[in-house]
């Protein structure tokens, strides 16, 4: 059970390569790796997953914004992807009006950081339900995900 608590480790929302809000309870270099990956992501709307060091770096790129979560590899892909979808929906609902398009780096941390934490907690606590939803969504969009086994390829 203890393992489960560390399943989702770090998350952020960015506009291009400007991180607007991030959240983690753990220390490690995953945030700098996540940022390096971010700078090399194609700008097209898509989902990307990179594997590194027993972790997956999961990205959802949508309309100029990137949603990222770093997860323990043991979690698989469905929970991180479901988390990103939830965060995206929440973020767009909250900031779709334009505040995010001019927000300064990290300026949404206070407001949106707790939301990232909340979604993380929810997905960690309800993996079955979340996976089910993710499966349904995946079938609908025939997962456009791109798996890259090795972070070296983008580093």
Automatic annotation (TrEMBL):
Domain Longin per the UniProt entry, residue ranges: 12-116
Q: Which residues form a coiled coil?
A: none
Q: Which SMART domains match?
A: Longin
UniProtKB keywords: Coiled coil, Membrane
InterPro entries, per this entry? Longin-like_dom_sf, Longin_dom, Synaptobrevin-like_transport, V_SNARE_CC
Cite the PROSITE patterns for this sequence.
LONGIN (PS50859), V_SNARE (PS50892)
Where in or outside the cell it occurs: the entry states: Endomembrane system
Where would I find the V-SNARE coiled-coil homology domain in this sequence?
132-155
| GO CC terms of this entry | cytoplasm; endomembrane system
Q: How does it sit in the membrane?
A: Single-pass type IV membrane protein
Q: Which domain of life is it from?
A: Eukaryota
Does the UniProt entry include the keyword Ligase? Answer: no
Could you say which protein family the record assigns here?
Belongs to the synaptobrevin family.
Task: Extract the PANTHER family matched here.
Answer: LONGIN-LIKE DOMAIN-CONTAINING PROTEIN-RELATED, SNARE PROTEINS
Protein name in the entry = Longin domain-containing protein
Q: Which organism is it from?
A: Trifolium subterraneum (Subterranean clover)
